[in-house]
Every structure is written in C-alpha cells, then in structure tokens.
Amino acid sequence: MQSQDVAPRHAPHSAKGPGPVVDVEQAEAALVEHYPRLVRLAYLVLPPGLGRGRRVLTAHALTQRALPRGRASAAAIPAQSTGRDTDPGYAFVRLQVVRSALKATRTRGRGMWRLPPLLPQVWGLRLFPRSGGADELALDQRLATLSGPARAAYVLRGLERLADGDVHQLLAAAGAEDPDEALLEADDVPAHHGLLASPEFDPCSLQARPTDLMRRRQHTKAALAAATALAVCGALVVLPGGGWGPDGAAAPAYAQNPAAEAALDPGRLTRVAPTAWKTSARADFSVWPARGPLTGDTALLRRALAVWARPGETVRVSATPGTQTGGPAGPPQLLYAGDVDNARVVILYDGLRIARYAEPKDGTQGAALDLARADGATGVGASALVLGRADGNVRYLTAPWVKAAAERDLTKPGAGAMDLGLTDGVTGPLAGPAMQPGACTSWNVLQLTDASGTQLTTDLGELVPAHLTTGRPGKPHEANGAEALRTWAPFACSLSAERAAGIRSVNAWAFADQTLPEDGGTARWVCTRAETWRGDGTAALAQFHTPGGRYGAVAARATDVTACGARDPHVLAGVLWKSHAGTWYLLAAGGRDTASIRTTGGVTAAGRGSTLAVPAKQGTQAQLSGTLDDGSALHGLR
Asked: Quick one: which of 624, 555, 612, 607 has its CA closest to 585?
C-alpha cells in the first residue's frame, strides 16, 4: 500500500531533491515491462494533427528512444497506488516520453519538426488503432483543442492517476513553460479518464491497411514486366515438355476452385438442428443451432461470407492476438443472423474461429468484421458470445443449454444479480465494464445459469467473454459463492489490464493472509492469472489488499511464466507499505507451503513461515527468494 498524501497544485515536491540514480539496465527493464502504457501515453500527448497512423509510429519511436545513455537521475515523483512509480526506472522513462512528446508538439508548431531517424518503418501498410465509440471520438476531439502541456496534464491525471502537484512537477521537469496554465486548461475537458484505456488510444493493438498502392504500382511497373519476361524465359529453358513449377499442382493465385467457392455459398452453410445439443456428447459451439430472424436472408449471408474472405478497404477488421484473419477453408457454421441495435449481425463458426460480421441497417458504409479464436472452447467457454456493443451496453448470444442470464456487479459481493432475460438465446443489454468513464466504480459481469449451476464471465473487449474462477491453481472453482465473490471484489477493476489480449479465463487465488505491523489489521494477498486462447501471453498479477481498502494494489506482474498456474501452484511477492504512524515496511508473502522468505538488496532480512515484515525506507528496492516445505527454491514474481 502506498502513501495517500496529495500535494497542492502549485506546490510541487521540490524538497525531495533530484531523485535516485537510474542506470540503463534499470530503465530498460521498466520500459520493457510498461511499454504498452508508455506508448499509449506518448500517443495521447502527441498532436492529433499528425493523423492516427503517423501518431502511432511516432509514439513507438519516442518511447524506444527514452533510455538514458548512461546513469541518470530519476524524477522524484511520490509513490502512487499503482506501484509503478516506486520504480525510479519507470519514473525516468515516463519523464523522457513526456518531454519528447512535448518537444515534438512545440517544434511541429514552428514547422521544423522531423521524426527521429530510428522511426519504425512499415512499407506498404498504414497502421492505426481500432476505432472506438462516440465517447472516445468526442474525447479525442476535445483533446485536440488543448495545447501540448494541457493535453499531457489531462493524460497524466487520468492514465497515471497523478495528483495535480505531481503533474505540475513532472511537466516542469519535462520543459513545459507554464504548468499552472496547462492544469487550468485541462480542467476545461470533462474528466472521462476511463476512456483513456480504450482501444481507440492503444497504439500497440493495431489494424493494417494498404497505402500508396498507385504510386508503388507506377514505380514498379517496368521492373515487374522485366521480371515476368525473365520468369517466362527461365521456365521455357528449365521446364521443357511441361514439367513441374515451383508450386507443383497448386492453382494460380486467386484462381477459382471448388473449396473456395463452397466457402462463399450461403446455401452450403452448416445449420445444426435445434435439439442437437441435448443428445451430443460435446458442449461447444459445434452444437449451437442457427438463431435469429435473418437466417434466411441469403443476400446478407452472402455479404458476410464475402467480407470474411476478402474484406475491402472500408471494412473495420479486428482480431484477437494469435487469430488468423483469412477466410474459412470451407462452408462455416451459422450461429446467428439478425438485427442487433442499429446493425445487422451475422455470427459464423469454422471450428477454430468465431467471426462476427456487422453492417449498418441504413445501408451506409462502415461494415465491421471481428474474429476471435475459439479452438478447444467447451462448457462455460462456449456458453456466450458478444452480439453487439452500443451506448456502453453489451448484448450476448447464449448457448442453447443456458437457462438464465443475469447482470452482477463484481465490486459489490453483497449485491444481488439482476435478471437480463433471454429471447431466443439473446440477452437484454448489460452495462459493459469497459466503457465506463472516469474512475472504476463498478465492474458488471455476466452470470449464466445452466443445469450444472451458475458461472461468471466478463467482457474484455472481445467476442468470447472470459471465464472467471477462484481457488488454488489446478483446482479452481466457479466464482459464484459468497467467499469467491468477496475474493474478487477488490481486484475486479484490475481486469481492465487484460482487455483485447485474447484472454480465455482469469483465476483469483487468495494465497496468503498477513497480519500487518503496528496493529494494522490483516491484509490479503491474491494472485490473478489470465490464460489466453493461444497459450502464450499469460499474465500473473500478485495483488495486495489492506483491511478497509476498496481496491487492491498490484505488487508484481509477470507474463509468460508458470507461477500461480496449474504447472507451478506457488507464488512469492512483496510490497512497500506505510503504517498509520508513518513507518515504512517491506511486506512479503508466499503460499501456505512456503517454509521461509529472504530479502536482499535494499533490505536484508530472513524469516520462517509464509510471510515476512521488516522495516524499510520509502523507495527501497529488494529481491525476494524463499524455500518451499519440500526444500525447493522459490523466487519472487517479477
């Protein structure tokens, strides 16, 4: 837990001095760990007039050039509740990113700005973030009216959760001429800070479209003609008598063939009988019947299949990480076709992927194609799909075995669930957690009831909602009991960190309770582990919750590790905590089978048991290790 002191706007913490010294390795570790957040920060601060594609490449370039050339002094910004700013390396690279973005804004205004020479280059493609909703567009337009420092002030408040005094200090260190004026100017924009985490402003989750096609065609016309002539001459010399070419018996590119034609024929779509799921040994998408009032609209189905195979330039295409975007290999299965809010929606399944096609009812341009992996989905993983999102609400299509659907606020374990109703498997609108502006005050999840009981899933911005569970890794259970709901409540908002990452399930494991020094009560340690559909990209977060606190704090985060999972049901993490009397402590905890814990570096101590509490100084950095009951080594999560 971190200090909650907030400085006045006009009183930066100048008394703290220049801050700790940061070397290249420490700054590099912070940049790699928080790279998506730093690039998002740069993207939001850069002038919108650059255009979305150029802002993306520039944001990546500025972030990648934020490392110091040697040892440098980090900004003395006070610790925040997120735990990031206790790392001097993160404070340094964040300051460098803001300084570079502000410099780019100032020099561009004088017509002298040039991109850095190490700017990432993507030839023949135009990259830009996913399109958001009306709220994100309105916020982007409002931010475009601000000066660079004011835009930075707004973003530091909302994305970094910095107090005004800390924002003032950071802007001054970054070279802003009048931080006070920047803060006042930022006050004019409504504080919809939650929208800053939207995919609209995520330069790490991108869409690609071709660019400069005509120019490239003109410049290479002669070369292509010469290459063609050379290839023909070579074939005549090397292959007399009609021998094999390099592609064997494969047809020429883009030639028609029976399999490709069948995949685009709406008359050959697979349609499952409405009662097939009752007798099948499988409980997955393959036994979902075709539902919706437009399943007989051949023209709509033909457009959906054609766009899946060959999306045009006006189609917004998105795919979860690790999902192939090519068309189906053969006729897919039809799951739904009907009207959803202001769009006509078709949902298809090819055995590996879910494809959602949507077009406006009024016939205007702007079709969308969303793809998500669903291979191996069964049970709860195949119980619901997102039909559409509109006005901050989500509608789901549920499996035929689902008997009831309800909305539950995960942050309020004592509150009941509100019935959503089901009409031909379609739920009523549920307030989506991902679209809430401002601070996270609630997190609404979908509660499904079938013959086996109730389960919780949550919308993380993808087609297939993520399954929520609790319990020791390897033996998780449904998060539907009172104790499970209390476990999840303080950490529900941390699910926002897993948006658009291809998450299949998230488990919350309360691995330790720790008695705090100075009669501070009992704190709880929880590890939340997110598993992906593709296998890699798993994320484990060790989180710390103090008694009486509404939210937990992330103490450690790691990706692509086995810790806190079924293969390695162990975890060790630590955090700096400040008592009510003002004393700082290093707290550490492991699972119940942890025999001892050691800390080295800024604090040297050791103790028996699964928890450790030793006095420390603010900003101290230490390394954790321990042993398990069987004598094997245990390392701190990082």
From this structure: 612
CA distances, 452 to each of 343, 372, 380, 401, 456 (Å):
34, 26, 10, 10, 13
Reduced to 3 states (helix: H, G, I; strand: E, B; else coil), residue 248 is coil
DSSP 113: -
Mention every residue, 6+ apart, whose C-beta is less than 8 A from residue 41. 94, 97, 98, 101, 155, 156, 159, 160
| pLDDT recorded at residue 196 | 85
Token pair 């909302």 is found at 158
Start-to-end C-alpha separation, the chain: 17
- Please state the φ and ψ torsions of residue 445, each to the nearest 5 degrees: -120, 165
User: CB-based contacts of 216: which residues, under 8 Å, 6+ apart?
Assistant: 124
Pick from 146, 152, 172: nearest CA to 77:
172
148-158 helix and 88-109 helix, angle to the nearest 10 degrees:
150
For residue 90, the SS3 value is helix
Q: Give the chain's count of helices (H) and strands (E).
A: 13, 31
584 forms bridges with which residues in the sheet? 578
**Average pLDDT per block of 10 residues along the chain, 638 residues long:** 37 45 76 87 86 84 80 47 60 90 70 45 58 73 89 90 90 91 90 80 70 48 48 40 37 59 88 95 95 95 91 89 89 96 94 95 83 94 95 94 96 93 95 65 94 95 96 94 94 90 95 95 96 92 93 92 94 95 95 95 94 94 94 92
Buried b (16+ CB within 10 A) or exposed e, 452-471: eebbbbbbbbbbbbbbbbbb
- Measured CA to CA, the distance from residue 186 to residue 184 in angstroms comes to 5
Q: Which helix (H) or strand (E) holds 484?
A: helix 482-488
Which strands, in side-by-side order, build the sheet including 594-601?
605-608, 594-601, 622-628, 633-635
Distance of alpha carbon 109 from the chain centroid:
33
Question: Pick from 436, 429, 408, 270: which is nearest to 340 by CA?
Answer: 429
Buried b (16+ CB within 10 A) or exposed e, 588-620: bbbbeebbbbbbeeebebeeeebbbbbebeebb
pTM exceeding 0.85:
no
